[in-house]
Write a sequence for this structure.
């Protein structure tokens, strides 16, 4: 059997060799072809290997968002985000767990007290951490302890300060999750409509807003949202990072309205309170003499003390968004926020853009003179002797101390901490008069205070 197979293979090999074409190439030609083929296949193999390696080692960094017509993918993404946020919410301490934490801290306090405050040592701090549960683990670290350690001679920290720290962290995480639920795009920011929905649904949870008529809700929401966007979106992108909302104090001011016993003074100074919102909207209605829901330049000229210069108001209507030459409520809110917060960089940026007529990025002597001439004209109208521009110009440059002695940039104004005074001098007769008579006003205020003390 084996011999038959061997004979078969021999016969097959003989016929194959007989049918093969004779290779007439020289050894050098065969060697050249071999080298060429080797080079070709080796290069292809090497390039292919490098591509595969580089592709496999680059982590995925881009995930395409579903298109508008990909309804199923959008729904899947929304549901997955909702599940993720719910899971994150369950990881936070609830009221019962916070009460238990306070009980443990109080039980492990280490005498003596520091004034009225109960204290805890690092050893006891670690013991509480072991008993408090897994959710509290991230708070019981050496880093947190060191952060709260001040001047206690025994190296302890205040129980109340630590508990407030935990409460603040929990509140921040809860608020971040709450805001993220309104992040329709799922990209970590809120658009104007997203923030409007958040505040609208927040209104019923704020006792200080119980008296607001539902018909006023839309105006209240617009008033509240504008403050966030005016200060947190200086480039007018139409969206704000949730991280920036949490980092600023505006949300604290808004949620302060949960306090049923908030003082009248606190309400008046809080932009988000009902009295403040009604004040701003009431001013707008009072200025709107023709009751068309918009403000003309003439109507806006009566804003405040009615002493804003005509030149400045011209610039407002040239640069700000208007409709057939008239200003709507949203644009008016930006105007009010700028003039009521002139010390803030965002407000100075707003006013600086109006003063920078040629869009050069700085104010020179010509620009200062252009705006101050309107102040001088108003002084003549009121029977006052106009002040020399040269003197005012020198005072402005002395106050600001710009890097370039002939130009004042926005950054110069911000750095000087005199931006509110400088802008008031240039755009508002009342602001200029207050600056010019500052010494007299201070003296009168001092005399008034002395008289009050004498009376007592």
């Amino acid at each position: 059997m084996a011999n038959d197979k061997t004979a078969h293979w021999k016969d097959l090999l003989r016929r194959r060799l007989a049918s093969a074409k004779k290779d007439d190439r020289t050894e050098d030609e065969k060697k050249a072809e071999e080298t060429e083929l080797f080079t070709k296949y080796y290069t292809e193999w090497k390039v292919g290997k490098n591509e595969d390696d580089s592709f496999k080692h680059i982590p995925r960094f881009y995930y395409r968002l579903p298109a508008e017509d990909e309804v199923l993918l959008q729904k899947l993404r929304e549901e997955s985000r909702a599940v993720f946020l719910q899971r994150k919410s369950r990881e936070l301490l609830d009221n019962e767990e916070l009460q238990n934490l306070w009980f443990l801290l109080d039980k492990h306090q280490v005498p003596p007290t520091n004034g009225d405050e109960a204290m805890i040592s690092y050893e006891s701090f670690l013991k509480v951490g072991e008993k408090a549960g897994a959710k509290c683990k991230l708070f019981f670290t050496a880093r947190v302890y060191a952060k709260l350690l001040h001047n206690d001679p025994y190296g302890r920290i205040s129980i109340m300060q630590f508990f407030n720290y935990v409460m603040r962290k929990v509140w921040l995480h809860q608020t971040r999750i709450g805001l993220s639920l309104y992040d329709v795009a799922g990209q970590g920011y809120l658009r104007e409509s997203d923030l409007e929905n958040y505040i609208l649904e927040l209104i019923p949870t704020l006792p200080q807003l119980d008296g607001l008529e539902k018909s006023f809700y839309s105006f209240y929401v617009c008033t509240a949202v504008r403050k966030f966007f005016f200060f947190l979106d200086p480039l007018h992108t139409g969206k704000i990072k949730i991280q920036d909302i949490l980092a600023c104090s505006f949300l604290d001011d808004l949620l302060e309205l949960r306090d049923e016993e908030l003082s009248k003074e606190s309400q008046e100074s809080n932009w988000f309170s009902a009295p403040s919102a009604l004040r701003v909207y009431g001013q707008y209605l009072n200025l709107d003499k023709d009751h068309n829901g918009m403000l003309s330049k003439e109507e806006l000229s009566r804003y405040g003390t009615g002493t804003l210069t005509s030149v400045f108001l011209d610039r407002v209507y040239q640069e700000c968004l208007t409709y057939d030459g008239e200003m709507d409520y949203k644009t008016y809110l930006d105007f009010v926020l700028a003039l009521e917060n002139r010390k803030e960089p965002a407000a100075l940026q707003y006013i600086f853009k109006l003063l920078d007529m040629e869009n050069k990025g700085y104010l020179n002597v010509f620009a200062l003179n252009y705006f101050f001439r309107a102040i001088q004209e108003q002084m003549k109208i009121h029977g006052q002797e106009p002040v020399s521009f040269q003197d005012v110009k020198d005072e402005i440059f002395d106050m600001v101390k710009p890097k370039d002695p002939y130009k004042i940039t926005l950054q110069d104004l911000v750095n000087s901490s005199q931006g509110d005074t400088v802008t008031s001098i240039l755009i508002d007769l009342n602001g200029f008069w207050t600056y010019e008579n500052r010494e007299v006003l201070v003296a009168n205020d001092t005399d008034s205070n002395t008289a009050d003390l004498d009376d007592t």
Summary: The chain has a mean pLDDT of 89. The radius of gyration is 37 Å.
